[in-house]
Amino acid sequence: MKRYSITILLALLVLAGCNNNFLEKYPLDKLSDETFWTTQQDLQLYCNDIYSDYIVGFGYGFGDATINPYGYTQAAIVYGDVITDNAAPNSYSKVAADEYIGYLTGSSGSGGWNFDNIRTLNYFLENFRRGNVPTETQNMYGGEILFFKAWDYFKKVKLFGDVPWLSKTLNVDSPELFGPRTPRKEVMDSVMACIDTAINWLPSRADAKYQTDRISKEMALFLKMRIALYEGTFRKYHKELNLDGTTFLNACKDACEKLMAAGYSLYSTGKPDQDYHNLFSQYTYKGNPEVILAKEYSADLELGVAFSRYFAQNLRHQFGVTRNLMDAYLCSDGKPISTSSVFLGRDSIQREMQFRDPRLSQTVANFGTYDLATGVMGADNAPKPNIPGLSGNKCPTGYRLAKWFLNDPEDWNRVTNGMQAAPIFRYAEVLLDYAEVSFELGQASQSVIDATINKLRDRVGMPHLEIADIPKDPTLDGNYSKYCGYTPAPLLREIRRERRVEMAFENTRWDDLMRWKAGRFLEIPVEGMKFVQNQFPGVKINSDIYLSSDGFILPYYKTLPNGRTFDETKQYLFPIPVEDLILNKALVQNPGWKSN
């Protein structure tokens, strides 16, 4: 069965039949009601203009636009983790350190509080049935728009909780512009209604009417799964909401089961020491059995992005993996480092990476080595990471990310026309979600674990997770107790560990911390690798770098001496920009944030 990924070739599609007025998204009244909405091509062109707003991948051009309010760059799928406990950017994250003030200085519509795209989506939904186009065709494009509307509102709810639910286009004098926020419960019910209708209207990838490289029923099921797991678990662990999440958990489980029956499988060539890494360094995902949705680029049209150059060739976005993430990887015997007899300790990066889950060496570079065949890790960063005290862009922890590394100087030299493809939805997440939601519903049997977690472990040759013999991890349990105020059951702890390891640097960690009410994990001290002086003879301690009492690099010793903090009274939601509060007196700021 063919597997398809979304290839965004917007320029070609627009040039195929779009006039200049169509390119002007606003004001909407410049679209001619007499001549538009009459053909399938009209509907398709309208939808095409929306794809690039949501299916971003590594971004466009230099790919260095900032995504607010988070503060990371446009390739969010990779860089989103820099605000979590997985990573440490050279200049510490203001969001992670509870120093975010953008809402005080940003203009109206900033910081994620922007409804321009919702207006564009609603305009389509008000007009797409006006032409003499078959209902089935109208539904196909209407399903795409509802998919994007559900995705947009999901992002807004994650940011702000209650948000205005807008079901029609508004004008400058519309009373809804000055109305209060819609309660989270109502918004999420509407989001689920949108995605359910999208699933009903969209064709399956196996249907003859499915158009290659467009949104499919399976992609909508994936989005539903992700939305439902987030909301169901957020409601469970944030008891202050007083909202029951069971309906969402059941919806997640149902979506997972449909996707698990849809013919997807994990990418594997039988090479457990390479397959995980190689999955993330591709030019295309057509034919890949694991990738449900991807963003690809076009060499012919010179539509690309400078991701591979600035990530692989010179680490322009200066950051490093944290020791906290390193410690999460199990040893090759299936036990955590705190209890495993094969763990060699942390005396050097070379020793700590031996006898570990193979995903560790395929995610984090061992002194610049990521490619097992060539041993090369970027022209400016081999054979050692550029820790402070060395020239070049800095890897502040010494743990350089190897995942997403495309070892191809030809692509680096394309600069803004780089062609590396970005997987956005992949089947591994379905397996992880199914394992987690099954536990949350009290249904996580060994057969469930074998069909999910253990399939992921099989790909990399790791021992199976056996419910009857779950290894103890006093260190991780202690962190949960200290920072979260609860200790999850051993099985849930291991399901969450598997998720962190498998999905590292795919921009899921922040959402996981928020929905598990585990934001204070950000307060775990940020440390890097064990510093070995004879490996860096020119680097000066207490000048170039600073070390903990155990000899680990402290990237924020000078800039953030008291460490990161997480205020649980406010930081699970972001603030509404002050200017919007001034313009709309019916809005009330989220708890804990200053209103002026």
UniProtKB/TrEMBL annotation:
It is found in: Cell outer membrane. Its main location: membrane. Residues 76-220 form the SusD-like N-terminal domain. GO terms for cellular component: cell outer membrane. Residues 1-21 form the signal peptide. The keyword Membrane applies. The keyword Aminoacyl-tRNA synthetase does not apply. Keywords: Cell outer membrane, Membrane, Signal. It comes from the Bacteria. InterPro entries: SusD-like_N, SusD_RagB_dom, TPR-like_helical_dom_sf. Pfam families: SusD-like_3, SusD_RagB. Residues 289-593 form the RagB/SusD domain. Belongs to the SusD family. This is RagB/SusD family nutrient uptake outer membrane protein. It comes from Arachidicoccus ginsenosidivorans. The lineage of its organism: Bacteria, Pseudomonadati, Bacteroidota, Chitinophagia, Chitinophagales.
